[in-house]
Amino acid sequence: MKAFHEPNLRFLLPSVVFVVVFSLYPIIESFRLSFYRLILTLPWLGQKFIGWDNYYDLATDPVAHQSLLTSMTFVAVTTPVEVLLGLGMALVLNESFRGRGWLRAVVLVPWAIPTVVSSQMWRFLFNDRYGLFNFVLFGDATDRYWAPLAEPGLALMSIMVADIWKTSSFAALIILAGLQVIPRELYEAASIDGASPWQKFRHITLPLVKPALLLALLFRTIDALKVFDLVFVMTQGGPADTTNVLQFYGYKKSFAEGMIGYGSTIAVAVFLVSLLMSIVYIRLLGTRLLGKEEGA
Amino acid sequence: MKTIFFLVFVFFIASMADAQTQLRFVTWKSENDAVWAQIIADFEAVHPGVKVVREVGPHSSTEFHDLVTQKLRNRDPEMDVFFMDVIWPGEFAAAGWASPLDEFFSAAQQKKFLSAPIEANRYRGRIYGVPLFVDAGMLYFRKDLLAKYHVAPPRTWPELVDQAKLILAQERDPYLTGYSAQFKQYEGLICNMMEFIMSNGASLWDEQNLKSTLDGGQAKRAVRFVRDQIVRTISHRGVLAYQEPESLALFTQGKAVFHRNWPYAWEVANDPQRSKIAGHVGMMPLPSFPGHKSVATLGGWQLGISRFSRNPRLAWQFVEYMTTREAQKQIALATGRGPARTALYRDVEILTKHPHFSARYDTFTLAAPRPRTPVYLSLSNIMQRYFSSAIAIPDSKIDQLAALASRDMDRVLDLLRGRGAP
Q: Which residue of B29, B76, B242, B262 has the fewest CB atoms within a 10 Å radius of its CB?
């Protein structure tokens, strides 16, 4: 047995090296830097170990609190909507009809467009004077035109709309994969038993697609928590700081202001929050996510 | 064997080509690229064996800063010369990223440039960049509309608001807006708000005592004026999301009475290809509050040399060439951007093509730089948050927000204590 297993470990080496160099090392380095005061533009202050000070600052920084709340609101609204829309799309795409292959490709287009490009597009759509959004809503009544990206109450919502448009199809893709492994015999048997379409959905589709649904939810939650490019292109965190999500705040601290220590602390906070959420999801899922049969 | 010889031969030829010295110039794409290409080609002609490679970055100051600082942080020896926004020399000098240029750029030479941008390039007594062109905030207005209602161009902000109200009420065009400027939460917001605050006799912070001054009564009155009189009264909400291009587009479409922008807008607004109001545009210094002086924010771009460049001497020759009188003249003629050399404001050829340059000279010489400090971007982010919250929320608690912003700024400024004046 041993002789059989050992070469397998060696084959694992490349991916282990990859993970260590590109994932583990940066994470550990961020952790380390978060205990230092390091400001690139003030090199005479040096790199000073300050213990938990950055974490204390983060805990008492009202801007960080606001950013965390903004990020959480973003996650809480976009993820369920994206997964529900994704489920709808997947159910349609799972039926057999003419042009299904074509439609499957089309649905993926928003997801395939680079986010920076689609963010720029949404910025134009939401423009207060020549944006399509206003034209569709109000037509010629220009005095009623809105400026979604200029209103503190609407800017975050506008970014959410762009995100939902963009990533619902990603959720659909995962859920579709889940739908395709449901054996057809179950539906046939249900039909013979006289089950209605709703009953089939409720008692066959939904329970069996649940692992895929939760997987989509997990991916989307972590991605939504890390939203950055939409904010960067569409609002730069404004107006009135209402779209300053945690990830964007961390970027500004590290990259614009050169506050590497504090920026790393924010990065660690984002990491811990997503880790915590992942653990909760995986616990909720039990072992199903890991591909084992329920009750096995 | 034959193939090996062939390969060796190929490598030999390739290394011959490599013997050419490369100079990497990190820049953004100019509105008039041909003139840049021409000047660079001229430089290469005078320096045989030198190849200038242009690396074109994003136009936005914030994004360009990301690109350049990324290279500097990594001590990238490939980058030799780079564009610097007028607010960066302090930061780049303190971080040890930009080379001091005193040994090349003599005091006598410096005197030939406008003094405000030279000061902006100085940090703790040494010079870190050569000004390429300068910008200053200007007021643009619709000559035809003002004439139609028999009003003279406004000298004070309240006058501007009254005139805009009158014209908006009479024109009854729902598209028309009174004042189009840059009020989005980004660096441009600082430029705009600084003009209001300083033209009310206040300032952003006290550079000597390292204390924020935004909490002062005059500063807060100026901010309140922008919220109540500009954003809520004569502008539409959209200005809160505008950077330069959007605000200028509104003006050139004939949908704004007054417009604040940098000098390049003059060329665009008077170009019949790009503007519906060509020939109807007036330009003047920005208004002030009664009893105070008009203030324009100083903008503009400089050339800096990386401390990690392998060829600093050659890099300097390039910087020198790009900022000669002839090169600056070519750029000014082609782009309409204000040259950094004083003599060019008396140049007959330039004044024939751009007659308004003589009037601009005063604005450029008096333009106020944003305070110089290595922590500028931290302070800017705090101020952006404050200004955007103060003017975008109609019933914002300005006193409270100003106190909070001042406290945050003081904390950042405290990091500079014990280092003496900048």
A: B29
